[in-house]
């Protein structure tokens, strides 16, 4: 992977996971837990993110081949999904593609929320999975190893954000987190448009000319 691709992928993954945006939800879902249990929940969520996205890096092409989906078509579909998520982030709200109201209410009744819904789909949702599958299609084995490293790095960022959820929530407040979420949404919208444009160019080569 070229340096600009590495930066674009890292920025896109960090934006789409938006760990700071997940802080208020994490605090709400773990309100009844003590500090040790909250730390364990943060660790489990980060491991779930890493596991799901690394699996997508290495098995995404087999999944597309099984369903007979061209990468150009997946680019357009994934780009549209990511754009919808970016629009929701620009409005400082959680996209329904990540978590619906019914899922949020159900999550509040669970004793363990590290894997579901915090790890998946709140952090590693359909948009993040689509992003790594698309980028993995362009990469050789070395590139996929780099992509795996980026996934682990972003999962580490998510773990750190959840681990420090209390001080982050106190310092930034809801307004600060919303501002950061909107900035990440703007970046994510640009990534989505690039995916859609590249996908259309692959589907309709005349557009590339």
Describe the structure.
This protein is mainly alpha-helical and 209 residues long. The chain has ten helices and no strands. The protein is globular. The model has no long low-confidence stretch (mean pLDDT 88).
Topology:
Layout (H helix, E strand, L loop, with lengths): L2 H15 L1 H11 L5 H33 L3 H20 L10 H7 L6 H10 L2 H12 L3 H23 L1 H39 L1 H4 L1
Which descriptors would you attach to this protein?
single chain, 209 residues, mainly alpha
Give a quick precis of the structure:
By secondary structure, this protein is mainly alpha-helical.
End-to-end span in angstroms?
A: 25 Å
* Class by alpha and beta content: mainly alpha
**Residue-averaged pLDDT:** 88
Number of strands: 0
Task: Sum up the overall morphology in one term.
Answer: globular
Largest sheet: none
Helix content: over 70%
Radius of gyration: 17 Å
Order of helices and strands: HHHHHHHHHH
Number of helices: 10
Strand content: under 5%
């Amino acid at each position: 992977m070229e340096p600009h691709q590495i930066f674009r992928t890292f920025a896109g993954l960090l934006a789409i996971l938006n760990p700071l945006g997940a802080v208020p939800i994490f605090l709400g879902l773990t309100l009844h837990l003590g500090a040790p249990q909250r730390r364990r929940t943060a660790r489990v969520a980060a491991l779930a993110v890493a596991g799901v996205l690394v699996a997508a890096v290495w098995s995404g092409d087999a999944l597309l081949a099984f369903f007979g989906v061209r990468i150009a078509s997946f680019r357009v579909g994934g780009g549209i999904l990511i754009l919808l998520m970016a629009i929701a982030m620009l409005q400082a709200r959680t996209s329904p593609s990540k978590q619906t109201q019914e899922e949020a209410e159900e999550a509040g009744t669970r004793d363990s929320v590290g894997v579901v819904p915090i790890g998946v789909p709140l952090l590693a949702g359909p948009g993040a999975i689509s992003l790594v599958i698309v980028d993995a299609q362009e990469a050789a084995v070395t590139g996929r190893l780099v992509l795996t490293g980026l996934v682990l790095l972003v999962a580490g960022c998510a773990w750190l954000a959840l681990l420090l959820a209390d001080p982050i929530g106190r310092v930034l407040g809801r307004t600060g987190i919303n501002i950061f979420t909107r900035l990440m949404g703007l970046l994510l919208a640009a990534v989505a448009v690039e995916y859609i444009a590249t996908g259309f160019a692959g589907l309709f080569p005349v557009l590339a000319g």
